[in-house]
Amino acid sequence: MQIPDALVDEMLKAKRVAALTGAGISAESGIPTFRGAGGLWEGYPVEKVATVEGFAEDPALVWRFYDERRVNMRNARPNLAHKILAELEKHYDMWVITQNIDGLHREAGSKNVIELHGNIWRVKCTLCDYHGENRETPLSEIPPKCPKCGALLRPDVVWFGEPVNGVEKAFRIAKESDVFFSIGTSALVHPAASLPFIAKDYGATVVEINPQRTPVSVIADFIIREKATVALDALFRELYKHKK
Ligand code: NAD
Ligand code: ZN
Predict the structure, then answer these.
(1) Same domain for 209 and 145?
(2) For residue 168, what are the CA distances in angstroms to 21, 145, 157, 205, 225?
(3) 101 lines ligand 1 (CB under 6 A)
(4) Which of 19, 200, 203, 238 has the highest local Cβ count within 10 Å?
C-alpha cells in the first residue's frame, strides 16, 4: 500500500503526535471488537455487565463476564501496530490515548499511555482504597474479595455512566498535537470520540486508519482504509527511509 507523500511530509515536520486507539487495533491480536448489536456484549446485556447498577445487582454475573474476557485475552500479544506506536515514542513527543482495556500498548513498550477506560488486569476495592494488579485466569474466587478489608473487588475499568480516566490530559494532548491519528475506533463513544474533532479544531493534521467509515472520516485530512498493522507498517517504512 502507498502512503501519500503529503502525509509523510506532515510526519517529518511534526513534533507532537498522538493516537486515539480503539478495539480495532487489538483485533489483529485476536481480541474481538465490540459489536454492540442488540445491546449485547459477547452475548451479555451491556447494562447488566458494564454499569455500576448491574454490578450492585449481580456482582458474580459481572465477574463471570470479565473472567471470560480475561481468559480470552490472556494469550493476546501486542501486534505490529502496537509496537510501531511504541517505537514512535523514540522519535516524537508521542502519546497513545486508548479506549482499550487490554493493556497491550504498555506491553508493547509505550510509556505515554492514557487508558481512558481502565485496565482489565487491574482490580480495585469497592470499599477501601485497595487497588492492584490481578492476572489470575480463570479467577479462583468469583466474585473476588479485597485482600485488605474483605469487601468486594471490582474490575478497574470504566463502566457506562462513570467518568473516564485522564480526560483533561487527553483533551490537552489533542489540542497540542501536530498529527493526530484515530486508529481502529468506531468513534461513537464520547468523550473519546470528540478527541479527533478537537485536535482538528486546534490545527492538527487528522489521520484515520480504519477499514470502515466512521464519523471521523468526515474531518480527516488523510484516510487509510487498511488494517492498523498494514497501514502503520507502511507509514513507518516511509519515515525510516527519511531516517526520522
Ligand atoms: P468498536 O468495536 O466500536 O470499533 C472497532 C473499530 O475498529 C471499527 O470501526 C472497525 O472498523 C475497526 N477495525 C476492525 N479491525 C481493524 C483493524 N485490523 N485495524 C484497524 N481498524 C479495525 O471499538 P471502540 O471504538 O474501541 O469502542 C468499543 C468499546 O468497547 C471501547 O470503549 C472499549 O473500551 C471496549 N472494548 C475494548 C476492547 C479491548 O480492550 N481490546 C475490545 C472490545 C471492546
Ligand atoms: Zn478493601
Answers:
(1) no
(2) 17, 32, 18, 21, 30
(3) yes
(4) 19
DSSP 83: H
Can you tell me the distance from the alpha carbon of 82 to that of 228, in angstroms, rounded to the nearest whole number? Answer: 9
Range of the domain at 184: 5-30+78-117+163-243
In the reported structure, the alpha carbon of residue 133 is separated from the centroid of ligand 2 by a whole-number distance in angstroms of 14
Contact 213, 182 (CB under 8 A): no
Looking at the structure, tell me whether residues 25 and 60 fall in a common domain. Answer: no
Residue whose CA is at the smallest distance from ligand 1 atom 8: 186
Task: Tell how far the Cα of 70 is from the centroid of ligand 2, in angstroms.
Answer: 22
The answer, yes or no, to whether any atom of ligand 1 lies below 6 A from the CB of 185, is yes
Over the chain (244 residues), what is each successive 10-residue block's mean pLDDT?
95 98 96 74 86 96 96 96 98 98 98 98 98 97 97 97 96 98 93 96 98 98 98 96 76
Q: Is the pTM of this model over 0.90?
A: yes
38 in any annotated domain? no
27 close to ligand 1 (CB < 6 Angstrom): yes
Between the CA of 89 and the centroid of ligand 1 the distance, in Å, is 23
Instruction: Please work out whether the CB of residue 214 comes within 6 Å of at least one atom of ligand 1.
Output: yes
Total domain count for the chain?
Answer: 2
**Same domain membership, residue 210 and residue 187:** yes
Whether residues 107 and 201 share a domain: the answer is yes
- Look-up of cell digits 485496565: 119
